[in-house]
């Protein structure tokens, strides 16, 4: 990442000499890609991720660096535990308002500052939704172990747990993910082709074609954060999804244009109303890859600001 320093290094403790502050900033910048990718995988929000990184920077700038043997492990420990605290708060808030929630999609192309890390170490939007069903601790252990390759002992040190406890948590997390994810994953070319078929049918009002491309047990998530006309609950079943699409299609802006891109590691479609990004659509397919089993539509304007 080219501009990898903390957002506001000037807010570091005033007691640090300029040379010490510069050295602390350089070390933080070296690991910022990793921290951003790791925390975003946990939280799914760019704004929350940036807040955690700012908190991590403040803790790092205030630390006695002479007593820290491994700066990377120290920074990861702070960032992960800050993210865990946010996950727990978010879990309590969603227990009060259980509407659909989707992570913030990020382009996996060269334009985004964080893309280098996210291309190599990221989970798909669909998998992030599955991770929401885990406890915050299970989610953190899964991401650290399965995505970033930390061993059980390293994770234990980061989270202040025993290796045995981490191993048990990792087993529960893997079991939870496997029970909710298909065994086969269609390739990106097939996924893009089916995405184009789905959008052509949905935006063109071809209900027969839409029925053909949807699996009978298709599930639809839309994260609108109170946006008028957006479903406040997950919609399950082909008939219900088709009825919803049919009811909402006339209210869409005229002349929507579609651009197919990659977000993290999966094909996605960006729907534009003129120059304004209106919706990001990411689909899950059946193991055979011939039908849509899951529809993820991010509509909340606040969550679309960092997509393009």
Mean pLDDT: 79
Which sequence of SSEs, written as H and E, runs from N to C? HHHHHHHHHHEEHEEEE
Spatial gap, N to C terminus: 17 Å
Q: Give the number of DSSP strands.
A: 6
Q: Output the strand order for the largest sheet.
A: 2-1-6-5-4-3
- Determine the structural class based on helices, strands and strand pairing: alpha+beta
Work out the helix count.
Answer: 11
Strand content: 5-15%
Low-confidence stretches: 1-15, 109-120
Largest sheet report:
6 strands, mixed
Helical residue percent band: 40-55%
Rounded radius of gyration (Å): 21 Å
Number of domains in the coordinates?
2
Principal-axis shape equals elongated
Write a brief caption for the model.
This protein has 308 residues and is an alpha+beta fold. The protein has 2 domains: 9-180, no CATH class; 188-303, Nuclear Transport Factor 2, Chain: A (Roll).
Textual characterization of the structure:
The chain is an alpha+beta fold and 308 residues long. It contains eleven helices and six strands. Helix 1 packs across helix 3. The protein is elongated.
List the topology elements.
Elements: H1 18-43, H2 46-62, H3 71-96, H4 115-120, H5 125-131, H6 136-147, H7 152-159, H8 163-180, H9 188-204, H10 207-213, E1 214-223, E2 235-236, H11 238-248, E3 257-263, E4 266-273, E5 276-285, E6 292-298
Parallel strand pairs: 1-6
Antiparallel strand pairs: 1-2, 3-4, 4-5, 5-6
Helix pairs in contact: 1-2, 1-3, 2-3, 6-8, 7-8, 9-10
């Amino acid at each position: 990442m080219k501009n990898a320093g903390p957002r506001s290094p000037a807010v570091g403790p005033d007691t640090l000499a300029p040379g010490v502050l510069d050295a602390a900033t350089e070390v933080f910048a070296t690991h910022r890609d990793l921290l951003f990718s790791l925390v975003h995988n946990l939280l799914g929000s760019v704004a929350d991720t940036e807040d955690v990184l700012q908190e991590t920077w403040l803790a790092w700038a205030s630390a006695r660096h002479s007593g820290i043997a491994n700066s990377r492990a120290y920074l990861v420990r702070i960032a992960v535990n800050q993210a865990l605290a946010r996950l727990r708060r978010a879990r309590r808030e969603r227990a009060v308002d259980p509407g659909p929630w989707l992570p913030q999609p990020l382009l996996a192309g060269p334009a985004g500052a964080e893309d280098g890390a996210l291309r190599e170490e990221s989970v798909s939007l669909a998998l992030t939704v599955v991770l929401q069903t885990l406890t915050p601790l299970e989610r953190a252990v899964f991401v650290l172990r399965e995505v970033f390759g930390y061993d059980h002992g390293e994770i234990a040190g980061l989270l202040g747990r025993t290796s045995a406890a981490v191993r048990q948590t990792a087993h529960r997390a893997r079991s939870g993910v496997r029970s909710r994810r298909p065994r086969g994953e269609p390739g990106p070319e097939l996924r893009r082709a089916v995405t184009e078929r789905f959008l052509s049918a949905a935006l063109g009002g071809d209900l027969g074609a839409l029925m053909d491309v949807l699996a009978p047990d298709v599930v639809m998530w839309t994260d609108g954060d109170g946006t008028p006309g957006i479903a406040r609950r997950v919609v399950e079943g082909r008939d219900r999804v088709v009825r919803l699409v049919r009811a909402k299609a006339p209210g869409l802006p005229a002349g929507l244009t579609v651009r197919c891109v990659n977000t993290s590691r999966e094909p996605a479609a960006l729907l534009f109303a003129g120059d304004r990004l209106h919706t990001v659509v990411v689909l899950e397919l059946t193991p055979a890859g011939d039908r849509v089993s899951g529809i993820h539509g991010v509509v909340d304007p606040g969550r679309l600001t960092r997509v393009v």
